[in-house]
Amino acid sequence: MTIRPRRIETTRQQRGLRSYSWGTAQTVETLVLLLLCWFCLALGFRHVQALWHGLLAWAWPRMGIGPETAVVLEPVYFLSRRWDVVGMQVMASAPTAAQAWVTLAVLALLFVASMLVPRRHLPFIYLWRVAAFLGMASAMAFLWFPTLFRVDVSDYFNSLMQISGIVLWVMPPLHAALLYIFPLGMLQKFLATLAALAFVVISAPFHVGALAWFVHETNTLALLPIYMLATFLPPVLAQIGIYSYFVSKASVSERRSAARAVSRTARA
Fold first, then answer.
1. Where do the DSSP E strands lie in the chain?
2. Beta bridge partners of residue 81, listed in sequence order
3. Are 90 and 154 within 8 A, CB to CB?
4. pLDDT in tens, 118-147
């Protein structure tokens, strides 16, 4: 009696690099695209910062955060060159003990209420619970260490604007390492990076402005929840969506040997 080894059926490989060869042409293409993106950024970075400054300066008094002069262009020196970046002044009051206790009680009730929501709303329920938990953690931290919440929030939002400027320069090499390795046309690769950069340029002032307005209208108890949930998570998810869309456009070329094709036909 002979024992025949069991053949393990494998699933078809997802779009990837099995049938894609990388050569000198792909390396040159990647370097050309990377240098082209950086060249465009070098020409347009100052204009991007001016756009952000104009939008936020226009919005500041209309949102009740402060005068237009509270949003300025500040010089930052890097590689012996001056770079103008957006700086802003944001005022946020520290909470009182009564506000912290009320916030803790309300969020605790909301956390309990999430247990009553039908399970068909599960993704929303988890986000609800995480937001309520972070809010309660912020309130309890204030009750234990009240001096930690007497902070100048301007530095936080200025850092976000500086990070947005840095992301513009980081995005091209990130795409070169993670996206250009897929079998896409040169134009598709360039459009993918252009879409990612355009998203940062358009969304950064609205994102930071909305967070600054929320903290200004509430108090510093909101800093922990927005830092954990609303600072980096939405932009990262959006960039993953842009990346996934263009990766899905990569051509699939499944190379199968003649022996595998014959055995598959025989089993059929």
1. 71-78, 81-88
2. 78
3. yes
4. 888 788 888 888 889 988 998 898 888 877
